[in-house]
Design goal:
Layout: E1 2-6, H1 10-22, E2 26-30, H2 33-42, E3 47-51, H3 59-69, E4 74-79, H4 84-91, E5 97-100, H5 105-135, H6 150-163, E6 169-172, H7 179-189, E7 197-201, H8 207-215, H9 232-235, E8 240-244, H10 251-263, E9 265-267, E10 274-276, E11 280-285, H11 289-294, H12 300-306, E12 309-312, H13 323-334, E13 340-341, H14 343-351, H15 357-371, E14 376-377, H16 384-387, H17 389-392, H18 398-416, H19 421-428, H20 432-442
Parallel strand pairs: 1-2, 1-3, 3-4, 4-5, 6-11, 6-12, 7-8, 8-11, 13-14
Antiparallel strand pairs: 9-10
């Protein structure tokens, strides 16, 4: 990385040049603003350290011309003691930071490292956004990456770096944080993006079908095996296999999964022949696998095999700055008519802690826009747990609260469609079969009369 130092004081200029060169940076120097612009034209400058008061062109004038030529340039103003207010004003022109004279070299180095970290993150995020945007039309499942909070930017930056590797990734995070979206993104950014992405929910498959689902089976391998079946590993060959809720994997299957990962071979149920596989495995869990391994409930060797690389998806309460953008996304997608939020409503939504994370926010918006009578969502349109979070905290665990929210959403859609299931299912974006299953799950029946 190349740094430009522009300062009319030769002693300070030489001090800064020598110090930064010892830290491994490439440095070019300038004695005034005009020379600084000339050096900027000759070299690919990543960071400019500009003395605010220089003869001829001042630091803020130099900064303005540099930013006009390269908006991505990182810059820091060096200002005299007592001129902090001026430096803050100059930062509005695009400076990232400032440092006072006499320059504390340790502090300067820390600031430079922070700027370079932000620059690296910004570069990664821009690359991710570019790829997602350019592949949206051809991707099997277009991704919606909503949010620009520091936590989200750090996550996307890490995803970009993980994507280039062929190693297994363990994605950890609470329920509803978007772990599958991150897995899809890793695949989409990877060298095998055009190959299959196969997802399997380990918590949703009966134990007796698990081996067949993962590894496949031969015709006649068991009573209902009327034809040969290719398992998830085979279907994902050359691409990515996503194992969601891997902490729910039965103990007997854990050893077979470990063998497949180690030997890169699988064997269908009822077969005596090994099949070579080339699959990148991404696993996800909302459980503490290390604690489960310590308790003997999850194989420790499998845990370490899955956790070659790891990614933790932050909960929504740690990226509250993204909540307004997420709300607008859900309103645009789900509202059947233009709806806005009253300021008080947005305030309540941003303050809520969301134990169910983004998924819970999505369901809350769907429920609220379905039940709202007006074109502006008011606080009374929100669920009780949002309006009175302290009272709702004692009403049950996360699954109970999510079930209550889903039941309310189903009931609202049914009432709005006069209990015509076809219309209700269409409004909810689910099939009639799924709707009937959920009606039975919650015991919902059309009122008599």
């Amino acid at each position: 990385m190349k740094i430009l130092i522009a300062d009319d004081d030769p002693l300070q200029r030489e001090l800064l040049v020598g110090f930064l060169e010892k830290q491994g940076y490439q440095v070019v120097a300038a004695a005034d603003g005009h020379e600084a612009l000339a050096q900027f034209q000759r070299h690919p400058i990543a960071l400019a350290l500009l003395d605010h008061r220089m003869p001829g062109l001042t630091g803020d004038q130099v900064l303005a011309q540099m930013k006009a030529a390269n908006p991505l340039l990182r810059a820091m103003l060096i200002t005299a003691y007592g001129a902090v207010e001026t430096a803050v004003q100059v930062m509005k022109l695009g400076a990232d930071d400032f440092i006072e004279k006499p320059v504390d070299l340790k502090q300067l180095l820390g600031k430079i490292e922070q700027l370079m970290q932000r620059h690296a993150v910004a570069t990664d995020v821009a690359a991710v956004t570019h790829t997602v945007t350019n592949t949206a039309a051809t991707a099997p499942q277009p991704l919606d990456l909503i949010g620009d909070s520091p936590a989200m930017r750090e996550t996307l930056s890490l995803v970009r770096r993980l994507a280039d590797s062929p190693w297994t990734v363990l994605i950890q995070g609470e329920t509803g944080t978007g772990k599958e979206v991150m897995a899809q993104l890793i695949h989409q950014l990877s060298p095998v993006a055009s190959a299959p992405f196969v997802a399997v929910n380990c918590a949703a498959i009966p134990d007796n079908l698990f081996e067949s689902e993962l590894f496949g089976h031969e015709k006649g391998a068991f009573t209902s095996a009327e034809r040969q079946h290719r398992g998830c590993f085979e279907r994902a060959n050359g691409g990515t296999l996503f194992l969601d809720e891997v902490g729910e994997l039965p103990a007997a299957l854990q050893s077979k999964l470990l063998r497949a990962l180690q030997e890169k071979h699988i064997r269908r149920v009822g077969s005596e022949r090994d099949i070579a596989i080339d699959v990148r495995v991404i696993a996800a869990t909302n459980r503490d696998l290390r604690a489960l391994a310590a308790a003997g409930q999850f194989r420790e060797d499998l845990f370490f095999r899955l956790k070659v690389l790891d990614l933790t998806v932050p909960p929504l309460r740690e990226r509250r700055a993204d909540i307004p953008a997420l709300i607008q996304h859900f309103l645009t997608r789900d509202a059947r008519r233009p709806i806005q939020l009253a300021p008080e409503t947005l305030d309540l939504l941003v303050r809520y802690d969301y134990p169910g994370n983004v998924r819970e926010l999505e369901h809350i918006i769907q429920r609220s826009v379905t039940l709202a009578r007006g074109l502006v969502l008011q606080p009374h349109d929100l669920p009780e747990e949002i309006r009175h979070p302290a009272a709702a905290a004692s009403t049950g665990d996360l699954q109970t609260q999510l079930d209550t929210l889903e039941r309310d959403l189903l009931l609202a859609a049914l009432e709005k469609s006069e209990w015509i299931q076809t219309r209700a299912a269409e409004q909810l974006g689910i099939s009639e079969r799924v709707l009937r299953y959920k009606l039975g799950k919650y015991g919902l029946r059309r009122p008599a009369g």
